Amino acid sequence: VQDVAREKFVLQAVKQTDSMRMEVSSPKLAIGIRGKREVSEADCYRHHILLKLLFAMMFGWTSDRFQKLYESGKIDASLSLEIEVTSRFHFVMLTMDTKEPVALSHQFRKAIRNFTKDLDITEDHLDIIKREMFGEFFSSMNSLEFIATQYDAFEHGETIFDLPKILQEITLEDVLEAGHHLIDEGDIVDFTIFPS
């Protein structure tokens, strides 16, 4: 079977901020980062893991940022992280319920742009997140449904079954490099849903 030539993927201009009103009980904030540099097909899964480690250190439940915001009531357990990495495009998206979406968006966007100075990005914190991911991986191996849905998640290169090996080899420098790959030339946008 011959490979079908793909047209060049053209990134459209983004609207850096937008909002709308809906029937929701609390404001909802989404912050997205779209990368512009290409990722090779063989590296997509590893790059996905690197970005997950980076953003988990910055915004995950083990981060000082999350703990302080949670204790002050500015965010709740709804904070979630979505990462998509393909050879044609990649992005990271944070979504959350918050009573202070404008202030929180400014704080998160600033933290993302200045990620190399983030006090939560350390060797010790990286080890904690790695151990958490190891645990989630081995727990998921008990689920046939999970294995079936993950098998073809990355068509070329490494797969979910390579996770333990990938995690063992990843260094803090690798994580920071992936951050530069995404953030330095990437677009950061936010979208807020306010109660009507």
From TrEMBL:
Pinpoint the Peptidase M16 C-terminal domain residues. Answer: 18-132
Which organism does this record belong to? Streptococcus mitis
**What GO molecular-function term can you cite, just one?**
metal ion binding
E.C. number, please?
3.4.99.-
Using the UniProt record, name the top-level EC class of this enzyme in a single word.
Answer: hydrolase
Instruction: State the source organism's domain of life.
Output: Bacteria
Could you tell me the keywords of this UniProt record? Hydrolase
- The answer on whether this UniProt entry bears the keyword Hydrolase reads yes
Q: What is this protein called?
A: Peptidase, M16 family domain protein
Q: Tell me the classification of the organism that encodes this protein.
A: Bacteria, Bacillati, Bacillota, Bacilli, Lactobacillales
